[in-house]
């Protein structure tokens, strides 16, 4: 695990241990909590126009920042429970995506990958 993720992993381990929350942090429960936090992030943008979603005021930006942090912290905790190196997983997934979505075939298109190579 890279240094930033290791720091967050260790900090989340300590935070949870101090509160005796590890008993609640099964992969299933963490994945469920993650979806709740992702929904809270979506809520920050609910009813905003495209332009408004780009031009957030400081209060809105603070709320988005907090929700992004919550999502990331749950991801770090879940990855830690499953012994997944987030950085390595992201690099591998980016390689898969590059193969799945060749730039010369998908540039400027939002179509699903089924329209390209399998």
Architecture overview:
The chain has a domain at 3-84: MazG-like (Helix Hairpins, Orthogonal Bundle), CATH 1.10.287.1080. The chain is built from six helices and no strands. It has helices at residues 3-19, 27-45, 50-54, 58-81, 86-100, 103-106.
Please identify, by name, the CATH architecture of one domain: Orthogonal Bundle
N-to-C CA distance:
31 Å
Radius of gyration: 18 Å
What is the number of strand segments?
A: 0
Amount of beta strand: under 5%
Shape: globular
Q: How many helices does DSSP assign? A: 6
* CATH domain class name of one domain: Mainly Alpha
Mean pLDDT: 93
Main pleated sheet = none
Helix coverage percent: over 70%
Topology-level CATH name of one domain:
Helix Hairpins
SS-based class: mainly alpha
CATH superfamily of one domain: MazG-like
H/E element string?
Answer: HHHHHH
Uncertain runs: none
Quick tags:
Helix Hairpins, 118 residues, mainly alpha
Spell out the blueprint of helices and strands.
Layout: H1 3-19, H2 27-45, H3 50-54, H4 58-81, H5 86-100, H6 103-106
Quick overview:
Helix content is 71%, strand content 0%. The protein is mainly alpha-helical and 118 residues long. GO terms for molecular function: nucleoside triphosphate diphosphatase activity.
């Amino acid at each position: 695990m890279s240094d930033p993720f290791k720091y967050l992993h260790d900090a989340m381990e300590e935070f949870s241990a101090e509160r005796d929350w590890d008993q609640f942090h099964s992969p299933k429960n963490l994945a469920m909590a993650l979806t709740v936090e992702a929904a809270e992030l979506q809520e920050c943008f609910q009813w905003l126009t495209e332009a408004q979603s780009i031009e957030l005021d400081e209060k809105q930006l603070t709320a988005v920042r907090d929700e992004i942090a919550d999502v990331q912290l749950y991801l770090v905790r879940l990855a830690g429970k499953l012994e997944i190196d987030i950085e390595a997983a992201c690099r591998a997934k980016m390689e898969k995506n590059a193969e799945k979505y060749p730039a010369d075939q998908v540039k400027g298109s939002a179509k699903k990958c089924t329209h390209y190579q399998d």
